[in-house]
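This section describes the prediction task in plain terms. A model, or a person checking by hand, is given the sequence of a single protein chain and must write out its three-dimensional structure as a string of tokens. No templates, partner chains or ligands are provided. The sample shown here is typical of the held-out split.
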Amino acid sequence: QMNASQTITLAKPISEQPNGIVLVFSLYRDGTAVDDSVCTFFVSKKEVELMPDAGHSFFLLINSGFSVMGAKYLTISDTQLKGNATNAKKVINNDMTFTNTSFVLRYVLGV
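The expected answer:
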């Protein structure tokens, strides 16, 4: 979920990757990661260099009907990704519902 108490320490800093990292999220149901509704995001090493410890927002969609939306907010440094409390909640704001609990971070890939 990458909630507020969760931190990932990278095996190799982003600055040592050729280009940056790719974050791979997928569906999360009944406490299990599901190989469906995969969402990927590229974060360049230059971006992290220019804005160390910046917060990053990721918007996620489930299935081809886009019936469920979610969002994740991560603080990304050269060596760590830190979660946020809203990543493990269902948020209703201005008639929009974000089911953040429906997604989980599966992989952080150096590219």
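For orientation: The chain has a mean pLDDT of 91.
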